[in-house]
Specification:
243 residues, alpha+beta, Lipocalin, 2 domains, eight-stranded antiparallel β-barrel
Length: 243
């Protein structure tokens, strides 16, 4: 019985092995193949859905974010900045226009102006040899009727009109007469023309030309004393506002 059992067992074993191995191999191989295929499918699915899909979605979202958020906002900000810059530039241009505008001429203030020391320019007459040069200009002048084209000067004998082309001015000549000396028949005629330059609202550099002639029977005596007629005395003096 035992030997018969062993014989039967030995005889049946190869069949079981052959049948189990192919079936098991096929099952295992199929399962493994299916599992592998499933794994590959899952991997591809994960890779496509997870990596590629999510990555594409994220990339798309990121791109959308860049386009909508970054690019859009950046463009808007850039446009606003450009607009503000343009407005600022336009405003700056306005400032430039204001800076380029002509402020107008300097106008002397109205009122009493005091004269400074008279500096002789030329004296071919020889008058300053006999008289203080300061006697040929007034102690003060009154400035009035000031405008961009002129003003008046008054030494007490009446206003004199002066044309003004900033910074230079020139006044209408005035004529005065004076006796040369007591007891002499000699009258000096002085034609005085004031001019100068306005340096500031309260500062003027004045100049004077005085043409001198002598009329009378005693004029030759003055010439013998060293005077010469006719002649022109010139000089300069400062003027300052405030009296």
């Amino acid at each position: 019985m035992r030997s018969s059992f062993l014989f039967l067992l030995a005889a049946c074993t190869p069949d079981l092995t052959d049948k189990a191995s192919p079936d098991g191999g096929d099952a295992v191989d199929t399962a493994s193949g299916d599992d592998g295929g499933g794994g590959a499918g899952d991997g591809a699915g994960d890779g496509g859905d997870g990596g590629a899909g999510d990555g594409s979605a994220d990339g798309a979202d990121g791109a959308d974010g860049s386009g909508d958020g970054g690019a859009g906002d950046g463009t808007a900000d850039g446009t606003d900045g450009a607009g503000d810059g343009a407005d600022g530039g336009a405003d700056g241009g306005g400032g430039a226009d204001g800076g380029d505008g002509d402020p107008g001429p300097i106008l002397p203030v109205e009122g009493i102006w005091s004269t400074g020391a008279f500096t002789v320019g030329s004296d071919p007459c020889g008058l300053t040899n006999f008289e203080d040069p300061d006697n040929f200009i007034p102690d003060a002048l009154t400035v009035s009727a000031v405008s961009a084209s002129g003003f008046t000067l008054d030494d007490g004998s009446g206003p004199v009109s002066c044309g003004y082309t900033a910074p230079d001015f020139a006044c209408t000549p005035t004529t005065t007469e004076r006796d040369a000396a007591p007891g002499l028949d000699a009258v000096l005629t002085l034609d005085t023309a004031l001019s100068g330059e306005v340096r500031g609202e309260s500062s003027i550099d004045g100049a004077v030309d005085i043409e001198v002639t002598c009329d009378g029977g005693s004029c030759f005596l003055l010439e013998l004393a060293g005077l010469a007629f006719p002649c022109t005395l010139t000089g300069a003096f400062p003027l300052n506002a405030g009296g």
